[in-house]
## 1
Amino acid sequence: MARTPASSQAASSQDSFEKVFAIPEICGRIARSLDRTTLTSCSRVSREWNASWLPILWRTIDAGKHWRHPAFQEALGRHGDLIRILECSRYDDIGLIFNTDTILCRNLVTLVLPKTTLANQADHVRLIRQNPHLRNLSVSFHDDPSSQYSDLVAAISGLRLLRKIAFDENKTLEVSTLEAILRGCNSSLQELSLKDTYFLKHPFNSAEEFASGLLAISDPATGDSLDPLSRDKDIETKEPFGILSLCMDGVACLQDLLLNLGSRFPLLSRLSLRKTAEVYFSWDFSARLAQRCPKIKHLDISETEDMDDEAIARFISSFPSLQNLQASDTRFGNKSLATLVTGCRDLAVLDITATSGVQGQLVQQLLEKCTQLRELNCWDVSTNVVEMMLGAFRTRRGAAAADGETFIAADGSIIRTGDAYNPDLQGQWMCRGLESLSIRFDYDPSPLTIDEQRLYPVSRARQFVYEQLSKLTGLKYLAMEAEFYANNEEDSLEGEGDYDNERDDGNNNIWIDLSLRSGLETLAPLKNLHTLSYSRLNHKVGMSEIQWMSKNWPNLRLVNGLDEDEDSEIIEWLEKNRPDIDIDDY
């Protein structure tokens, strides 16, 4: 029977539909936004869909109760070879994998083993040996010394492609075990994780027998060194390992452990000390660490309580090649930021969220001088725009006497400082490659004299912020908050001219509100903006502003700040005219 034109068109559409979903890359991108229940439903639509979605559904098996579910056990026998990432909890029995005549799970890339005991060691060894192409492995020993797991150690040491190994929360890992595994996998291993381990009463202790070249020796009474580097002594040089990343998150230890580990990792470029406790760094610790690991470029000290502003500054000065610094929820302050600005010109990522606060002039210097900056997060940190303007003015005034300096900005443009070369650039944010910015702009006139307050009114400060932002044309993510601090209630926003007279809500705290009347049009060059968050601004963006953003920022896909109840009309307009823009109301 011949097809009618309508049926032919429907069949052609269906064929195209099937072809699209036969492309793994498309299915993979869609799958990132779907839960497992939806993925299961997709795999049951047709044979073609089953072939496309089943590998995605089975690619990752997380730890959970499904291990004890009969349906999962039955399906495991049929689809085990599709698994690439297998994560197990301490209660999951991987013996199920071997309860069949078929060899399952032979194509793993990532494996998180349940806690290894003397009883289940044979199964763990078997699983590792039938997956010689493992890239990532997490191992945890039971309360027995790790030397009793020689078969497991031998199996791990035979993994020639292993890139990362984690011994997280291991209470009985011995130095000899780590030494054997690192030596066996040295040709490929790049990442080592020992996080969430209490090393103070651990077989590792200070890892003295692991150290090479220099041995760290602390004062037994205080744990501190008496003189710079004087507590290091030369010892036998041992084989270095090619570890590039060391994770010590949530670790309680002596600083000697870090120094002795570092002595075997001269190529170390990433070090994470997030949430470390009871370390009590001596004043020369960072210099001693830099002597062992001079190539560190990525440093995470977030939520570390044992470092004050001065200690963090010393850390920064010891690693001038630093490119990524994570220092949120620390005592990072003015001294640390000043050291960063003067010493780390290659800085690309900085996170100082919820730190103790820094001067606006130093933030201004950061944005002027760190030209390679790609991401800056200083959320919940008060940045006084008045101080930023004062800093920018002093830069312009001082540049007249400067000979000028030439450097390349992140966007590839050549910039020359000094009034004789380009006076328009003095005081400008030169991090033109910035892609992500989370910042709080405050207006606090308290540092100003009466005459200076006339020079830097609110209107000029707001214009300063808008104009500086408008130069960041590569910006993709922008999150803003703003507060206004008046000297007294009577002069809160006086002298604002027409803009002040147009305000009808009487809210004296509004000074940056992303409204058209305040100068939003200045931000039109931000064509690459993907995400805008203004949930902490006092002003609610209106319909005219949303329509302007929709027209002028074609890549905008996410807005955080709209309220489903108060902004229902705006949301309805977006759903009709820009359905590609999501509304994030968390």
Note: Residues 6-11, 398-423, 489-509 have pLDDT under 50 and may be disordered.
## 2
Amino acid sequence: MSYAPMGGLSALLKDGTKHVTAADDAVMRNIDACKQLGAIVRTSIGPNGMNKMVTNRLGKLFVTSDAATIVRELEVVHPAAKLLVMAAETQDREVGDGTGFVITFGAQLMSNAALLIKMGLHTAEIIQGYGRAAAFAMTELEAMSIKSVTDPADREQVAVALRSAIASKLFGMEDFLAGLVAEACVSVLPKNQSMFSVENVRVAKVHGGSLNTSSVVKGSVLIHDVEGTIKHLKNAKIAMYTCDVDAEQTETKGTVLLNSAEEFANYNRSEEDALEKRIKDIANTGANVIVGPKFGDMALHFIERYKMMAIRVPSKFDLRRIARTTGAVVLAKLVPPSPEEIGACDSVGVEEIGSTKCTIFRQDSSSSRIATIIVRASTENLLDDVERAIDDAVNVYKNLTRDQRLVCGAGATEMELARLLYKYAETLPSLDQYSIKKYAAALEEIPRCFAENSGGNATELMNTLQAVHADGDAQMGVDVENAGIMNAAEKNVYDLLSAKLMAIRLTTDAVTTILRIDQIVMSKEAGGPKPRDMMAGDYNDETAA
């Protein structure tokens, strides 16, 4: 019996490879995957966005409306949808706000591209039209800035700029939290404002109490007690170590032959004397606080004898933050620090917050390089959600130190850009006008989502918004409290101009990249059960032998 080899691409690739061509609607499959991802996120954007309950592969539960957390914990595996997720992750990393905008806007652009393809347009024509629309939108957006933060060190101005980023996740608490974040960020703002680092603002989560009892500390906070009996010190001098504060261990194994109890006692005494000498030498430098990852019982005994405080910090990241707070140099060996290596702190002490003992390094009288926001809440999920909101607001402040321009929020900017794009499309004689109009329609989807998520009549509200923008009122947006419209500038609802610019650029790049795909080739994963068929959207049946 003769063997006839298979022809085509299947003959080139190993068994189990998935292959979808343009003839099999590869583009339409990618569009459908992005639409499904957008359908998950669109109900979560805006101040009244719904929460998603996600359990990741490690069994950790997430209840949040933060788009960045949702798409990260969903672990999207479809290659086309993953490109949109990567754009959202870049937006979250660079700006901190606008991830929901990227996913929702991108999914709507893909959905509108499907309609254009059915109309007969080629993907190359759609890509060209989307590119022209994005360039026009970003140019117009530059001219739409209506306010600037004149001084990034002014807490009141900064708090106004941060409100929208926090309100999109914790509506109703944006004024309080924006004030906290503004206080924390301004307190650690360096003289060269463009050198602000998000690492300088930390969050300490303490169970119990209400969110209104949260506060800001200039310095670092550890959620545990100190090791010894000394709990409070003023004008602390701090020695920090990455090694264990204990008797020195030999690098190699050795055997000691002892012939009597006296030799055994002398041997132990020599170890104790050596350890005591190290602790005494450290105390003689003026240091009265020792920070290290671990303390032995004998070392604690001598630390107490010389009236020093012992603070255990097992995390190397916490060690680094305390070093930044106090100016100490972290030493790798248990040796006396030099005067330049000793850190200084106005006060170090244990404070009981609720029923939790916290060790706090305060720098009240001098400028601190670290500020910590102590967040209080009743549940772990709420604490995590507040931490995410604060993290986004701190990232927004980082961008604010580089570009202080603001535009109207509440969907007003998107509605005005859509109006301008419709007007621009009418001036073009080419087929690009169809793509530009669909680009404008995708921008209108953002205020529509705000209206839908706030429980109003989205169609009626969108018609009203279009009418007022056509009359020249470019500052009108969606009033999520009353399910109506409002003047965003009068309500102090602003978004960062740089966040909008980056979101439009990232989304357009991701969408045009996906639309350029006309073939999908996916190799079979090595080992284990057969993976989920991502293009077909179902699971392959396996027959047990």
Note: The first helix runs from residue 26 to 41.
